[in-house]
Design goal:
CATH topology of the largest domain: Aminopeptidase
Order of helices and strands: HHEEEEEEEEHEEEHEHEEEHEHEEHH
Number of domains: 2
Helix content: 25-40%
Largest sheet: 9 strands, mixed
Radius of gyration: 21 Å
Structural class: alpha+beta
Shape: globular
CATH superfamily of the largest domain: Zn peptidases
Number of helices: 9
CATH architecture of the largest domain: 3-Layer(aba) Sandwich
CATH class of the largest domain: Alpha Beta
Length: 358
């Protein structure tokens, strides 16, 4: 199980898929699941794999990662860019990136930084805004960038960071664990669930453009019309320096995170109780989260149609929305295990009970 997990995580985290340009991750989804169910897409680019019969149970993860788009090319061949998704500018200077051209080429570049030798002392502690940053692709003119390298305005830009085992066993570092860890778990759970019966119509869903306002989740939920939704995520860990360990709700090694609240969605209490009960009965390591900030695709999915009971399961990742984040693979395995176990409990009677208010 762990071998498959690592293979999926490496392939997915090293894929280039910023909001609106999720083709590489969608292709992995299709390759992994095309023999397991019925594939379809919506007009926004979200992808579905359906199997089984019964109440409609959506298991969703977003395919996109935070990144950039080419906004301008200067006369001397440097790229200006806009962010797609949330970035802290402090983490960007001197980092490697990759521009995906319209012909499919990947052009390496680096976010330019000025050596301290040229900075007055008063500027060394200032954060440079993104609209004042440039990417150096090694060109000397706009013509060279466009005609020879094939880079044009609007081309997507992704961070470059290899999937890397760390010295501590079970810790791994990569870009885009938000949310390739959710996509890997979704695919992994789909493989396991396809090998035995489950009492529902399972709808595995990869959504687009979560990082820019849950856009794909809106259309995906409209198309899929689920009766209940499980959202798989790579939420921020809170166990590094600067956080209170006593208050930690997203600790590496603490197991799958079961989210009860964030500002965009309140988990259906009956579904939350069921998830916790299943985790306890199955001996799945888990931790409970009530978040003061942030949001997930649940924010859009739970408002779709007549309202969809939704829950968010997560693998805490340190330093998300940067070039390098860290997870514990055991938390991932716990999320896969809980997803599979929870889906197997969602028969028609149980699904109906989640919204039996009268």
């Amino acid at each position: 199980m762990q071998k498959k997990a690592l293979s999926l995580l490496q392939e997915l985290t090293e894929a280039h898929a910023v909001p609106g340009h999720e083709d590489e991750v969608r292709a992995i989804f299709v390759d992994e699941l095309e023999t397991h169910g019925e594939l379809s897409v919506d007009a926004s680019g979200s992808v579905f794999c359906e199997m089984g019969a019964g109440p409609r149970v959506m298991v969703a993860g977003h395919m996109d990662e935070v990144g950039f788009l080419v906004q301008n090319i200067t006369p001397d061949g440097f790229l200006q860019f806009v962010a797609v998704g949330g970035w802290w500018e402090h983490s960007l200077l001197s980092q490697r990136v990759e521009i995906l051209t319209r012909k499919g080429a990947k052009i390496p570049g680096v976010v330019a930084s000025r050596p301290p030798h040229f900075l007055p002392a008063s500027q060394r502690t200032q954060i440079v805004p993104i609209d004042q940053m440039f990417i150096d692709v090694g060109a000397s003119s706009r013509e060279e960038v466009e005609r020879i390298m094939g880079i044009h305005l609007g081309d997507p830009i992704a961070p470059v960071s290899a999937f890397t085992p760390m010295a501590r066993e079970d810790y791994f570092m990569a870009k885009a664990f938000d949310n390739r860890v959710g996509m890997a778990a979704l695919i992994h759970a789909g493989h396991l669930l396809s090998q035995s019966s489950h009492p529902n119509r399972l709808i595995l869903t990869g959504t687009v453009m979560e990082e820019v306002g849950l856009r794909g989740a809106k259309t995906a939920a409209h198309v899929a019309k689920p009766d209940v939704a499980i959202i798989l995520e790579g939420p921020p860990a809170d166990d590094a320096p600067g956080f209170s360990r006593a208050d930690s709700q997203g600790r590496l090694g603490g197991g799958v995170q079961i989210r009860l609240f964030d500002p965009t969605a309140i988990t259906n209490p009956r579904l939350a109780a069921l998830a916790i009960k299943v985790a306890e009965e199955e001996g799945i390591t888990h931790q409970i989260a009530v978040r003061r900030t942030g949001g997930t695709d649940a924010g859009a999915i739970h408002l779709s149609g007549p309202g969809i009971p939704s829950i968010v399961l997560g693998v805490p990742a340190r330093y998300i929305h940067s070039h390098n984040s860290i997870i514990d693979i055991n938390d991932y395995l716990s999320m896969v295990a809980l997803t599979v176990a929870l889906v197997r409990r969602l028969d028609q009677l149980t699904v109906d009970s989640l919204t039996a208010y009268l």
